[in-house]
């Protein structure tokens, strides 16, 4: 037994010499894990004692037949503090090769900071103290801390320290900016496809979403699940002299997902660090943090269209949300009848009778094209055409007296309906389409009159237009400036315009994007070809 323990120690030392941690192959790490597993088993058996039978079984076992689990892998849920960091900004006109180089240095900085904190390099198979979760792009990473290193009072402090160090690293490199998000919660150990331990938990994803709202150089922390535990009296007694911080007293309510919000605070301070961008060096104190308001991402809290039921038909129809009407001053609607718009405008004016708009453009589908819309909302009969042959139809006819069968009866057996039945169905369909067309035209006229009465005096420029090119339905919200929003519902011939799929385009960057610009051009084209209505 002693010989095997010595063998494990020698192999461990040998790997440290021959395979430096930053270049160690996966095979070397796996071999080390297996040896350490064997060593842990031997240590437990030596401590607890062995029966003669167990000794014989253990001596006869194959040294490679070790447990699948690395030593002391925690399998019960535990608390973890997660720091999610990413490179928020690269130099302008950066080459792809330089981008990859910065991403590599970013990963090396994370490895160096963790090595400094815990006294040893990261080990992918060891999840006792922290786990590094990388993204596919290489420009972001999460570190979930489950046990603080010596000198740190809690996992929240360690996560904040890592965030501060990485922000300072980016400032020292002068080639990129880093932002960070912090959150805490319970995590569970799982095993990936390589049978290596990993962790999962809501706080890990939440930290990434909070980070996504941070500005370059900013550190954002969840007030409820991170800041409050960090600032508890017990954790404040033993703060490290290598990190001084303070929380911005202003708390920000941000949207971190569809229907998900978080109260966050910005963190600023000073941290003593090494210049990992330059390959190490002496420690020096640097400031970190950004107290500007984080990106709110308010649009994630809005549904592009609310759903309400038509009282007469029971069909769910799309209604633009009043929140957008309250927020934007220039609005354009490209639709069919707009019979639901007046209700939403009225809701806005009831809440604020003095509310006004700068420009509202309302595009109605022309009477000539209204038949297409009417046809789209008619339910087609399943046996409208003689197109599907019943394979058993001939056998059924053979069993009957063919001479007594009429042509209509034979067609019904073979196709499920007769020619006359299909013709009758077509006639009924056509009549229903014409009825719906007349109803839509009447609804359009009523909607126009109601909207004009409601909005006159509330809009500087109010235009009612008719168009005959039904490529899509859309709503435009301050579409010609940063912060604009375009909601598009494609209209396909034969599709139901009330239930067609929706797409959303936001102008949130310097460049609005090709798709956004194409729909801007589409509106400009409609303005050129539309007629007053």
From TrEMBL:
Region Disordered: which residues? Answer: 46-75
What highest taxon heads this organism's lineage? Eukaryota
What protein does this entry describe?
A: Uncharacterized protein
Q: Which organism is it from?
A: Ditylum brightwellii
């Amino acid at each position: 037994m002693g010989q095997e323990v010595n063998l494990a120690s020698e192999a461990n030392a040998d790997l440290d010499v021959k395979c430096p941690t930053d270049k160690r192959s996966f095979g070397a790490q796996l071999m080390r894990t297996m040896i350490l597993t064997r060593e842990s088993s031997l240590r437990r058996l030596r401590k607890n004692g062995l029966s003669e039978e167990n000794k014989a079984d253990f001596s006869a076992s194959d040294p490679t037949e070790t447990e699948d689990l690395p030593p002391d892998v925690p399998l019960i849920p535990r608390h973890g503090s997660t720091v999610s960091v990413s490179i928020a900004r690269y130099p302008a006109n950066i080459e792809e090769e330089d981008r990859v180089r910065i991403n590599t240095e970013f990963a090396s900085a994370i490895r160096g900071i963790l090595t400094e904190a815990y006294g040893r390099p990261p080990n992918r198979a060891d999840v006792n103290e922290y786990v590094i979760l990388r993204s596919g792009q290489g420009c972001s990473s999460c570190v979930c801390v489950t046990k603080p290193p010596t000198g740190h009072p809690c996992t929240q402090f360690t996560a904040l320290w890592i965030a501060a160090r990485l922000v300072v690293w980016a400032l020292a490199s002068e080639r990129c900016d880093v932002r960070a998000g912090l959150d805490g919660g319970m995590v569970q150990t799982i095993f990936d496809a390589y049978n290596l331990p990993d962790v999962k938990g809501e706080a890990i994803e939440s930290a990434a979403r909070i980070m996504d709202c941070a500005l370059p150089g900013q550190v954002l922390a969840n007030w409820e699940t991170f800041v409050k535990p960090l600032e508890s009296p017990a954790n404040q007694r033993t703060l490290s002299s290598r990190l001084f911080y303070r929380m911005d007293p202003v708390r920000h309510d941000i949207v971190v997902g569809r229907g998900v919000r978080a109260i966050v605070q910005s963190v600023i301070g000073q941290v003593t660090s090494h210049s990992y961008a330059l390959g190490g060096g002496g420690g020096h104190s640097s400031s970190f943090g950004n107290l500007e308001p984080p990106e709110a991402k308010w649009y994630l809290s809005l549904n592009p269209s609310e759903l309400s039921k038509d009282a007469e038909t029971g069909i769910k129809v799309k209604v633009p949300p009043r929140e957008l009407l309250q927020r934007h001053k220039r609005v354009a609607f490209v639709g069919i009848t707009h019979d639901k718009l007046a209700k939403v405008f009225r809701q806005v004016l009831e809440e604020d009778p003095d509310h006004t708009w700068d420009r509202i453009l309302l595009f109605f589908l022309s009477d000539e094209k209204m038949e297409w819309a009417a046809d789209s909302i008619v339910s087609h009969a399943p046996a409208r055409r003689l197109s599907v042959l019943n394979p058993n139809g001939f056998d059924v006819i053979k069993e009957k007296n063919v001479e007594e069968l009429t042509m209509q009866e034979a067609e019904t057996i073979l196709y499920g309906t007769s020619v006359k039945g299909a013709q009758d169905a077509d006639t009924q369909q056509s009549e229903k389409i014409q009825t719906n067309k007349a109803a839509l035209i009447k609804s359009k006229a009523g909607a126009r009159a109601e909207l004009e009465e409601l909005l006159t005096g509330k809009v500087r420029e109010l235009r009612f237009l008719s168009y005959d090119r039904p490529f899509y339905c859309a709503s435009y919200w301050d579409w010609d400036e940063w912060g604009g929003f375009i909601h598009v519902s494609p209209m396909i011939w034969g599709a139901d315009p009330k239930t067609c799929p929706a797409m959303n385009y936001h102008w949130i960057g310097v460049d609005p994007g090709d798709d956004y610009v194409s729909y801007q051009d589409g509106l400009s084209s409609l303005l050129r070809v539309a007629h007053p209505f």
